[in-house]
Amino acid sequence: DVKVTQSSRYLVKRTGEKVFLECVQDMDHENMFWYRQDPGLGLRLIYFSYDVKMKEKGDIPEGYSVSREKKERFSLILESASTNQTSMYLCASREGGNNEQFFGPGTRLTVL
Amino acid sequence: AQKITQTQPGMFVQEKEAVTLDCTYDTSDPSYGLFWYKQPSSGEMIFLIYQGSYDQQNATEGRYSLNFQKARKSANLVISASQLGDSAMYFCAMREGDYGNQFYFGTGTSLTVIP
Questions:
Q1: What distance in Å separates residue A103's CA from the closest CA in chain B?
Q2: Which chain B residues contact residue A98 at CB under 8 A?
Q3: pLDDT at residue B43 above 70?
């Protein structure tokens, strides 16, 4: 089975802090994704990566950056956390083609 | 315009009954894929079913089936014989193009199964 893990289930940070969210997948998938999920808004794509060191902006990249130095690891970085970045963050991976995404358990981030 | 629209914020169904969750999509690309995911209260997103735009038959996976009406651009999820464990959020999603990686998600439908 594909396993996607995220470094924390719950995280509390202060405004202005730099925040790192880590995601690791164990199935050698080329593609990895970061979403945020907010009530009433569904899932919105922040960034995705189709290869090591390659990244593409999604719908809401502002205030975020990403890093993919190894194929299995995709990091989301909040350079200076703000309260409006309080949300659930979901990481996913997939092979190409018509295959589905496999999701991690999510990180619920609270920025105070 | 929204790529994926789910108009039912909440639904209730009696145990053992069937339920249909609505999803409409918007794309001009002839090649696309439609997905349904389930998200229980634990938060994990679970893939349920996939329908390709060129698939002639409606997709089925156990108690899940996808009612694909291409001309109406709808991809409704049908759950037969509902169980208490089906209570969850359900999300419809679309991927455009043959090699596209961007998935568009709807806002979700919260399903509650009543004993």
A1: 6
A2: 33, 50, 52, 95
A3: yes
Provide the strand spans (E) within chain B: 4-5, 10-14, 19-21, 24-25, 32-39, 46-52, 60-61, 64-69, 74-79, 88-96, 103-105, 109-114
Q: Residues with Cβ < 8 Å from B109, sequence gap 6 or more?
A: B6, B8, B9, B10, B11, B21, B22, B89, B90
What gap in Å lies between CA B96 and CA B76, rounded to an integer?
A: 18
pLDDT one-digit tens code per residue, A44-81: 999 999 999 899 999 999 999 999 999 999 999 999 99
What's the token pair of residue A67?
């890093």
Of B99, B101, B107, the CB nearest to A40: B107
How many contacts (CB atoms, under 8 Å) link A and B?
54
Nearest to A23 by CA among A75, A58, A59: A75
C-alpha span between A89 and A100 (Å, rounded): 18
Nearest to B44 by CA among A105, A4, A91: A105
At B115, the pLDDT band (50, 70, 90 cuts) reads very high
Output the six-digit token pair for B44: 């994990």
**Strands B74-79, B46-52: pairing kind:** unpaired
Count of all residues that appear for chain B in the document = 115
Helix (H, G, I), strand (E, B) or coil at B86: helix
**CA terminus-to-terminus distance, chain B:** 38
| Interatomic CA distance for residues B5 and A95, integer angstroms | 26
